């Protein structure tokens, strides 16, 4: 089996986590890293064993032997950096949120299809064994028809107006940073909602600190979703069905098992699932499987899913009055 040479574009905190996780992927090698600072790139490369370090994103395109690029820059840059790599013929795994808005996401998808190059959103949650197990159980009807889903994600972040989380220029706010997780999990289990209602509390910079959503579906199901940068929350996801309930164990975006409480059964059943390391290696291994098969998108996380998710984010932002610079 061949070895896949990975490159990382953008070297913030999540890039370090991804680089550590690559060590758990068979036939994966961190080959090149790119930052706007050469010294930062060289330090990162030394720490994680990358053969090449460059001090601009454009220089990355000149590094020979790259098989796939992981894009880990702020949300505001995902569109430009994905297009940079895709137009150079390099497969892309792009961090979520996929882009700032659906228009950008659609262009990324169009260019990938025109260039015949692989593109996938780096929604690592989709590839955890516990999520795979939960999807199997729900699709098999183990908890009956799902009638309601609740999911939350929150932590307390210091208010730094120029920081990534609160700066509108960097597409900050709880929704695109962590609210996308509850929205993702609701879409994974319940599909496209018919009705979306959103309210939010905005920071002085204009981005959302709290964002609460209620969704309704053609199936008759509903969902309650919440994200916040102002307080730690349980980070839980529970599905309520006609025959019982299912909970993703641990923090739901990186779960390590499934808990089933079926109606009429006195005790809940806990199903532990593998969770190695931080868990980013699951999505990386999936990308390599797709590339080995010559696929241009993931069958588990197709580009249509990511585009629809961005459209939902646009809908929510329109309701809470959050526009980013340059959106008009």
From TrEMBL:
<keyword id="KW-0614">Plasmid</keyword>
<dbReference type="GO" id="GO:0000166">
    <property type="term" value="F:nucleotide binding"/>
</dbReference>
<keyword id="KW-0560">Oxidoreductase</keyword>
<dbReference type="Pfam" id="PF22725">
    <property type="entry name" value="GFO_IDH_MocA_C3"/>
</dbReference>
<dbReference type="InterPro" id="IPR036291">
    <property type="entry name" value="NAD(P)-bd_dom_sf"/>
</dbReference>
<dbReference type="InterPro" id="IPR000683">
    <property type="entry name" value="Gfo/Idh/MocA-like_OxRdtase_N"/>
</dbReference>
<dbReference type="InterPro" id="IPR055170">
    <property type="entry name" value="GFO_IDH_MocA-like_dom"/>
</dbReference>
<feature type="domain" description="Gfo/Idh/MocA-like oxidoreductase N-terminal">
    <location>
        <begin position="5"/>
        <end position="122"/>
    </location>
</feature>
<dbReference type="InterPro" id="IPR050984">
    <property type="entry name" value="Gfo/Idh/MocA_domain"/>
</dbReference>
<dbReference type="Pfam" id="PF01408">
    <property type="entry name" value="GFO_IDH_MocA"/>
</dbReference>
<protein>
    <submittedName>
        <fullName>Gfo/Idh/MocA family oxidoreductase</fullName>
    </submittedName>
</protein>
<feature type="domain" description="GFO/IDH/MocA-like oxidoreductase">
    <location>
        <begin position="132"/>
        <end position="246"/>
    </location>
</feature>
<comment type="similarity">
    <text>Belongs to the Gfo/Idh/MocA family.</text>
</comment>
<dbReference type="GO" id="GO:0016491">
    <property type="term" value="F:oxidoreductase activity"/>
</dbReference>
